[in-house]
Amino acid sequence: MTSAPEFIVEPHPHPVDAVTRAAMIENPGFGSVFTDHMVTIRYTEGHDGPWGGWHSPTIGPRKAIPLDPATAVLHYAQEIFEGMKAYRHADGQIALFRPEQNALRFNRSAARLAMPALPEELFLASIDEIVRTDKDWMPSVEGGSLYLRPFMFASEAFLGVRPAKEYLYIVIVSPAGAYFKSGAPAVKIWVSEDYSRAGPGGTGAAKCGGNYAASLLPQSEAIAQGCDQVVFLDAKEHRWIDELGGMNLFFLFDDGRMITPPLGTILPGITRDSIMQLARDEGISVSEEAYAIDQWEADAKSGKLVEAFACGTAAVVTPVGEVRGKHHNFTIGAGGPGQLTVKLREKLTGIQRGTLPDPYGWVRTVAGV
Ligand code: PLP
Ligand code: COI
User: Fold this and answer.
1) pTM of the prediction?
2) Which ligand sits closest to the CA of 247?
3) What is the percentage of the chain residues whose pLDDT exceeds 90?
């Protein structure tokens, strides 16, 4: 058994002062404010330490990383990431939501991208370490959290097309408020009929940067059409609903049933999995079922479909109000948040934020905060 990882600690010599920090986290939005520190852990093939090839775990100042122009990730996109949040509870503790699931998914993504697995213990210790160090960056704004972004990339300078022999794992932290700028009660989504995000046998189920690169053009199309997000259809028939660019989808019917697209080419969302559990415990019948875009439109128009929502770490639970596309144009219910959507969101956020009991053991507090 390996002992607990010990991090090399290099405190920031000039951390942001308290007054400036308070202004930075007053209304942070999503993804543009960053804390003082970052975690780095290196992997070198052939290194033989207590963590196999992984070594030099360090918590130090957040700073630019020099890269050789031949660094493999810049050419062949061997990169994966995770997204998770830390929440402040009323008792002052800081809690993470199912972080072991992020560790497991990180390693499933690593396997698909031919990258080395990062020991789960090292992943979890890196998260605890950065949260303890930068805990004062927690925004107090309603719905605020610390968004944690662990990622790993091929850092070897080599142009041959093969898995790299060196990797760098980093965790950065971004104080976060609401994901959607509009603050609208429901989002408008655009059906991408020309582009796919992922195909069978591809990397759709992995959280790799390349998937998001492929989503940017259709996402820009969505914005140009006055929508907030793009919904992708399957790559073969352009018929079956997959997911949004950064969220999974759920559909609720007038008979009380709820469905979500099956796993395969979509990201297995941790929020998706949690919502299925919460809904089942509310007595709702939930199934993982393929759902066609034309059927969605017909069901919304006939009133059979009563609610639809998107979910993910960054966006939590977000109602879908309207759907637009070259051949689609429909509103869900009254176009605002549905009753069950709001109930499930409150249950989920209540558990995450410690205002509701956690019967599933999903919440893990960070020691030493
Ligand atoms: N689908 C995609 C493409 C995502 O990027 C995300 C966000 O991480 C999700 C779904 C939701 O996953 P999770 O609930 O684990 O955040
Ligand atoms: C998340 O919800 O964590 C995501 O990764 C979605 C997006 C910000 C990429």
Assistant:
1) 0.96
2) 1
3) 93
